[in-house]
Amino acid sequence: MKLILGGAMGRMGREVALAAKDAGMEIACGVDVAYSGQNFDFPVVTDFDKVTETADVLVDFSRPSGLMELLALAKRNKMPAVLCATGYTEEELEEIRKASLEIAVFRSANMSLGVNLLRRLCSIAARTLGEDFDIEIIERHHRMKADAPSGTALMLYDAVEKETGSLKEPIYGRNGRTAQRKPSEIGLHAVRGGTVTGEHEVCFYGEGEEVILSHRAENRSLFARGAVKAARFLKDKPAGMYDMQDVLDELLS
Length: 253
Description:
Layout: E1 2-6, H1 11-22, E2 26-31, E3 44-45, E4 57-60, H2 67-76, E5 81-83, H3 90-99, E6 104-107, H4 113-129, E7 134-141, H5 151-164, E8 169-172, E9 185-192, E10 198-205, E11 210-217, H6 221-234, E12 240-242, H7 244-252
Helix pairs in contact: 1-6, 2-3, 4-5, 4-7
Protein backbone atom coordinates (compact mmCIF):
# COMPACT_ATOMS: atom_id res chain seq x y z
CA MET A 1 0.00 0.00 0.00
CA LYS A 2 1.40 3.40 -1.03
CA LEU A 3 0.81 6.83 0.56
CA ILE A 4 1.24 10.46 -0.42
CA LEU A 5 2.28 12.27 2.78
CA GLY A 6 1.48 15.95 3.31
CA GLY A 7 3.57 17.78 5.90
CA ALA A 8 6.33 15.21 5.47
CA MET A 9 9.02 17.27 7.22
CA GLY A 10 6.97 18.15 10.28
CA ARG A 11 7.03 16.26 13.55
CA MET A 12 3.84 14.38 12.73
CA GLY A 13 4.88 13.76 9.14
CA ARG A 14 8.05 12.05 10.32
CA GLU A 15 6.05 9.98 12.81
CA VAL A 16 3.64 8.89 10.06
CA ALA A 17 6.55 7.85 7.84
CA LEU A 18 7.86 5.63 10.64
CA ALA A 19 4.42 4.20 11.44
CA ALA A 20 3.77 3.50 7.76
CA LYS A 21 7.06 1.64 7.46
CA ASP A 22 6.21 -0.43 10.54
CA ALA A 23 2.84 -1.26 8.96
CA GLY A 24 4.45 -2.41 5.72
CA MET A 25 3.38 0.66 3.74
CA GLU A 26 5.45 2.78 1.36
CA ILE A 27 5.60 6.58 1.13
CA ALA A 28 5.41 7.20 -2.62
CA CYS A 29 5.98 10.94 -2.23
CA GLY A 30 6.12 13.53 0.53
CA VAL A 31 4.95 17.16 0.30
CA ASP A 32 6.30 20.02 2.42
CA VAL A 33 6.69 23.73 1.69
CA ALA A 34 9.93 23.76 3.72
CA TYR A 35 11.67 21.16 1.55
CA SER A 36 14.96 22.36 0.04
CA GLY A 37 16.86 19.22 -0.87
CA GLN A 38 17.11 17.45 2.49
CA ASN A 39 17.72 13.71 2.41
CA PHE A 40 14.66 11.48 2.77
CA ASP A 41 13.95 7.81 2.10
CA PHE A 42 11.32 8.91 -0.42
CA PRO A 43 10.93 11.74 -2.94
CA VAL A 44 9.68 15.07 -1.53
CA VAL A 45 8.24 18.10 -3.37
CA THR A 46 7.22 21.53 -2.12
CA ASP A 47 3.53 21.50 -3.04
CA PHE A 48 0.79 19.11 -4.10
CA ASP A 49 0.76 20.45 -7.67
CA LYS A 50 4.24 18.93 -8.18
CA VAL A 51 3.33 15.38 -7.16
CA THR A 52 3.67 12.97 -10.10
CA GLU A 53 3.68 9.68 -8.20
CA THR A 54 0.51 7.64 -7.71
CA ALA A 55 -0.63 6.14 -4.42
CA ASP A 56 -3.55 4.40 -2.75
CA VAL A 57 -4.29 7.08 -0.12
CA LEU A 58 -3.19 10.63 0.67
CA VAL A 59 -2.45 11.39 4.34
CA ASP A 60 -2.06 15.05 5.30
CA PHE A 61 -0.58 16.46 8.50
CA SER A 62 0.24 19.90 7.07
CA ARG A 63 -1.65 23.18 7.46
CA PRO A 64 -5.09 24.12 6.05
CA SER A 65 -3.46 26.64 3.67
CA GLY A 66 -2.69 23.88 1.16
CA LEU A 67 -6.16 22.35 1.23
CA MET A 68 -7.31 23.33 -2.28
CA GLU A 69 -4.18 21.93 -3.98
CA LEU A 70 -4.44 18.79 -1.86
CA LEU A 71 -8.08 18.21 -2.82
CA ALA A 72 -7.34 18.92 -6.48
CA LEU A 73 -4.64 16.23 -6.49
CA ALA A 74 -6.87 13.73 -4.69
CA LYS A 75 -9.83 14.32 -7.00
CA ARG A 76 -7.65 14.24 -10.12
CA ASN A 77 -6.31 10.82 -9.17
CA LYS A 78 -9.52 9.51 -7.52
CA MET A 79 -7.40 9.04 -4.40
CA PRO A 80 -8.93 8.83 -0.89
CA ALA A 81 -7.67 11.49 1.52
CA VAL A 82 -7.05 11.35 5.27
CA LEU A 83 -7.12 14.92 6.60
CA CYS A 84 -5.41 15.29 9.98
CA ALA A 85 -4.97 19.08 10.14
CA THR A 86 -7.08 21.24 12.46
CA GLY A 87 -8.22 24.84 12.23
CA TYR A 88 -10.20 24.65 8.99
CA THR A 89 -12.53 27.58 8.26
CA GLU A 90 -16.21 27.07 7.47
CA GLU A 91 -15.41 27.73 3.80
CA GLU A 92 -12.68 25.08 3.83
CA LEU A 93 -14.99 22.59 5.54
CA GLU A 94 -17.49 23.18 2.76
CA GLU A 95 -14.80 22.44 0.14
CA ILE A 96 -14.01 19.20 1.98
CA ARG A 97 -17.70 18.28 1.94
CA LYS A 98 -17.89 18.94 -1.81
CA ALA A 99 -14.79 16.82 -2.41
CA SER A 100 -16.41 13.94 -0.50
CA LEU A 101 -19.01 13.72 -3.25
CA GLU A 102 -16.21 12.55 -5.58
CA ILE A 103 -13.73 10.76 -3.30
CA ALA A 104 -13.57 9.13 0.12
CA VAL A 105 -12.50 11.70 2.73
CA PHE A 106 -11.50 10.82 6.29
CA ARG A 107 -11.37 13.78 8.67
CA SER A 108 -10.89 13.73 12.41
CA ALA A 109 -9.75 16.45 14.78
CA ASN A 110 -7.78 13.76 16.60
CA MET A 111 -6.40 10.58 15.06
CA SER A 112 -6.07 8.72 18.37
CA LEU A 113 -8.34 5.70 18.69
CA GLY A 114 -8.40 6.30 22.46
CA VAL A 115 -9.59 9.91 22.08
CA ASN A 116 -12.34 8.80 19.73
CA LEU A 117 -13.42 6.17 22.23
CA LEU A 118 -13.47 9.02 24.79
CA ARG A 119 -15.76 10.92 22.43
CA ARG A 120 -18.19 8.02 22.38
CA LEU A 121 -18.07 7.64 26.16
CA CYS A 122 -18.76 11.37 26.52
CA SER A 123 -21.85 11.02 24.34
CA ILE A 124 -23.13 8.23 26.58
CA ALA A 125 -22.37 10.25 29.73
CA ALA A 126 -24.04 13.39 28.37
CA ARG A 127 -27.11 11.42 27.34
CA THR A 128 -27.32 9.95 30.83
CA LEU A 129 -26.26 12.90 33.01
CA GLY A 130 -26.61 15.99 30.85
CA GLU A 131 -29.84 17.40 32.25
CA ASP A 132 -28.67 17.43 35.86
CA PHE A 133 -24.89 17.85 35.56
CA ASP A 134 -22.75 20.87 34.66
CA ILE A 135 -20.26 20.07 31.88
CA GLU A 136 -16.78 21.55 31.59
CA ILE A 137 -14.04 20.64 29.07
CA ILE A 138 -10.37 21.26 29.84
CA GLU A 139 -7.54 20.75 27.36
CA ARG A 140 -3.78 21.10 27.83
CA HIS A 141 -1.14 21.33 25.10
CA HIS A 142 2.45 22.40 24.53
CA ARG A 143 3.39 26.07 24.24
CA MET A 144 3.77 25.89 20.44
CA LYS A 145 0.17 24.92 19.66
CA ALA A 146 -1.45 27.69 17.63
CA ASP A 147 -5.20 27.07 17.89
CA ALA A 148 -7.29 27.25 21.07
CA PRO A 149 -9.44 25.54 22.07
CA SER A 150 -8.00 22.47 20.40
CA GLY A 151 -9.82 20.72 17.60
CA THR A 152 -10.20 17.73 19.90
CA ALA A 153 -11.85 19.86 22.61
CA LEU A 154 -14.31 21.16 20.02
CA MET A 155 -14.95 17.59 18.86
CA LEU A 156 -15.73 16.58 22.44
CA TYR A 157 -17.94 19.64 22.84
CA ASP A 158 -19.91 18.65 19.74
CA ALA A 159 -20.34 15.14 21.14
CA VAL A 160 -21.88 16.31 24.42
CA GLU A 161 -23.84 19.21 22.90
CA LYS A 162 -25.66 16.90 20.52
CA GLU A 163 -26.81 14.80 23.46
CA THR A 164 -27.88 17.70 25.68
CA GLY A 165 -29.84 19.81 23.20
CA SER A 166 -29.31 22.93 21.15
CA LEU A 167 -29.92 25.27 24.12
CA LYS A 168 -26.38 24.63 25.39
CA GLU A 169 -23.83 27.35 24.66
CA PRO A 170 -20.02 27.18 24.65
CA ILE A 171 -18.22 29.45 27.12
CA TYR A 172 -14.54 29.97 26.33
CA GLY A 173 -13.00 30.69 29.72
CA ARG A 174 -14.67 32.87 32.35
CA ASN A 175 -12.63 36.07 32.37
CA GLY A 176 -14.93 39.05 32.78
CA ARG A 177 -17.99 36.96 33.61
CA THR A 178 -19.46 38.09 36.93
CA ALA A 179 -22.75 36.17 36.88
CA GLN A 180 -23.29 32.71 38.29
CA ARG A 181 -22.81 29.76 35.97
CA LYS A 182 -25.92 29.03 33.89
CA PRO A 183 -27.17 25.44 33.42
CA SER A 184 -27.07 26.07 29.65
CA GLU A 185 -23.29 26.56 29.60
CA ILE A 186 -20.58 24.14 28.55
CA GLY A 187 -17.20 25.55 29.52
CA LEU A 188 -14.12 25.13 27.32
CA HIS A 189 -10.74 25.93 28.84
CA ALA A 190 -7.33 25.87 27.13
CA VAL A 191 -4.01 25.50 28.95
CA ARG A 192 -0.71 26.05 27.10
CA GLY A 193 2.77 25.33 28.38
CA GLY A 194 5.92 23.26 28.20
CA THR A 195 5.93 20.19 26.00
CA VAL A 196 2.55 18.67 26.89
CA THR A 197 1.58 16.39 23.99
CA GLY A 198 -2.14 16.59 24.71
CA GLU A 199 -4.52 16.10 27.62
CA HIS A 200 -8.30 16.33 27.57
CA GLU A 201 -10.84 16.12 30.38
CA VAL A 202 -14.61 16.20 30.10
CA CYS A 203 -16.05 16.86 33.55
CA PHE A 204 -19.64 16.23 34.62
CA TYR A 205 -20.37 17.98 37.93
CA GLY A 206 -23.56 17.01 39.77
CA GLU A 207 -25.00 17.43 43.26
CA GLY A 208 -22.50 15.72 45.53
CA GLU A 209 -20.79 13.75 42.76
CA GLU A 210 -18.67 14.20 39.67
CA VAL A 211 -17.69 12.07 36.70
CA ILE A 212 -14.39 12.87 34.96
CA LEU A 213 -13.57 11.27 31.60
CA SER A 214 -10.03 11.91 30.42
CA HIS A 215 -7.36 10.99 27.90
CA ARG A 216 -3.63 11.73 28.05
CA ALA A 217 -1.33 11.40 25.05
CA GLU A 218 2.20 10.44 26.09
CA ASN A 219 3.80 10.94 22.66
CA ARG A 220 2.89 11.78 19.09
CA SER A 221 3.38 8.29 17.71
CA LEU A 222 -0.16 7.31 18.71
CA PHE A 223 -1.59 9.92 16.32
CA ALA A 224 0.61 8.61 13.53
CA ARG A 225 -0.54 5.04 14.14
CA GLY A 226 -4.12 6.27 14.06
CA ALA A 227 -3.53 8.01 10.73
CA VAL A 228 -2.04 4.84 9.25
CA LYS A 229 -5.00 2.85 10.59
CA ALA A 230 -7.34 5.40 8.99
CA ALA A 231 -5.50 5.11 5.65
CA ARG A 232 -5.86 1.33 5.67
CA PHE A 233 -9.55 1.70 6.54
CA LEU A 234 -10.17 4.26 3.77
CA LYS A 235 -8.51 2.36 0.93
CA ASP A 236 -11.11 1.32 -1.68
CA LYS A 237 -13.97 2.99 0.23
CA PRO A 238 -16.65 4.70 -1.91
CA ALA A 239 -16.95 8.49 -2.00
CA GLY A 240 -18.22 10.02 1.23
CA MET A 241 -17.20 11.45 4.59
CA TYR A 242 -15.63 9.14 7.17
CA ASP A 243 -14.07 9.60 10.61
CA MET A 244 -12.60 7.57 13.45
CA GLN A 245 -16.08 6.71 14.72
CA ASP A 246 -16.47 4.60 11.56
CA VAL A 247 -13.24 2.80 12.46
CA LEU A 248 -14.61 2.22 15.97
CA ASP A 249 -17.84 0.85 14.51
CA GLU A 250 -15.85 -1.59 12.39
CA LEU A 251 -13.79 -2.71 15.41
CA LEU A 252 -16.88 -3.14 17.59
CA SER A 253 -19.03 -4.91 15.01
